[in-house]
Amino acid sequence: MTIRIQDLHTFHVVARAGTMQDAAHELGVTPGAISQRIRAVEDRHGLRLFTRSKNGLSLTAAGLALQSDVSAAFATIEAAGKKHFSSHRNAIRISTSATFAHSMLVSSLGRFAEAHPRIRVSVETEDRLVDLRSEPVDLAIRHGLGTYSGMRSEWLCAPELVLVASPALLEQSGRPNDPSECLRHKLLPDATGKDWSIWFEALGIDASGATYGPQYGNDFLTVKAVIEGQGLALLSDIYVKEGLASGQLVRALDVTWPTAFAYYAVALADSYEKPCVSTFVKWLKKDMG
After folding, report:
1. Residues 66, 216: Cα–Cα separation, whole Å
2. Domain for residue 65, yes or no?
3. What is the three-state SS of the chain?
4. Taking the model in full, what pTM does it have?
5. Which position among 33, 187, 207, 289 has the lowest Cβ density within 10 Å, counted as fewest Cβ atoms?
6. What is the pLDDT along the chain (289 residues), one digit of tens a residue?
7. Based on the number of CB atoms within 10 Å of its own CB, is 277 exposed (0-12), middle (13-18) or buried (19 or more)?
8. Are 152 and 92 found together in one domain?
9. 100 and 241 in one domain?
10. How many CB atoms are closer than 10 A to CB 34?
11. What is the CATH number of the domain that holds 119?
């Protein structure tokens, strides 16, 4: 009669642990479930594998013989599992935008690697929103208001973007006096196409009447479009520094930045249970805060 591998593994764990309670903890089931599995194996094959007493479990002669045969096999399987899979327990795959990776994440990752050399981090720079439920990504860093259905998000930082325009555009169309007056201008979106709508939402402004210009998908190209007078843009200071210094760009408006419009670490709740993920997020919050 064939013995199921699951039954053999349960027997192996109980024999090694010495108690149903410890075996249940290791296998992630209840002690009652372990007891039922062992009893089913004994009944199915007509052998008593353990004797039970107030002092716990002890192997019978049949149990000792079976343990002798299977323990080496399971030790080999477990060693193979550690060899091929254990390193991935300390690996994190992150999805974020190229802009955030370039402006903030690369420097932070260098410091993180020094502090936590055993945790491997791989970064995918895509402006699309990955599906954390179906794709092999542990964590996404997203720019928004932190509300993502079915996800847990942790606030990381709220770096102020610079609202820029060309001097010629403002001379022709007028400088906005407050955020709502930006709606009189054409707005150039970022790679996600959502930066302006989120910014207006964070400020409590109805932006349903906004007019948008081309979406370039690359901040360097957006800078060039702003210089040419195609519209206003919200951009990181690292991309507009040269344009502001040369006078090709000017700040269109100085406004207090809404802290809710920030970068968030977003993941499924289960992903935060991974020690490497929780360690990484806690470290990022401290490093970027």
Report:
1. 67
2. no
3. CCCCHHHHHHHHHHHHHCCHHHHHHHHCCCHHHHHHHHHHHHHHHCCCCEEEECCEEEECHHHHHHHHHHHHHHHHHHHHHHHHHHHHHHEEEEEECHHHHHHHHHHHHHHHHHHCCCCEEEEEECCCCCCCCCCCCCEEEEEECCCCCCCEEEEEECCCCEEEECHHHHHHHCCCCCHHHHHHCEEECCCCCCHHHHHHHHCCCCCCCCEECCCCCCHHHHHHHHHCCCCEEEECHHHHHHHHHHCCCEECCCCCCCCCCEEEEEECCCHHHCHHHHHHHHHHHHHHC
4. 0.61
5. 289
6. 566 788 888 888 888 888 888 888 777 778 888 888 888 888 887 889 888 877 778 899 988 888 888 888 887 877 776 555 544 568 899 999 888 888 889 999 999 999 999 999 999 987 677 888 878 899 999 988 999 888 999 999 988 889 999 999 999 999 999 999 999 999 999 877 888 999 999 999 999 999 999 999 788 899 999 999 999 999 988 788 899 999 999 999 988 788 888 999 999 988 888 899 999 999 999 998 7
7. buried
8. yes
9. no
10. 24
11. 3.40.190.10
In a domain, 81, yes or no: no
Residue 55 structural domain: 5-59
In a domain, 220, yes or no: yes
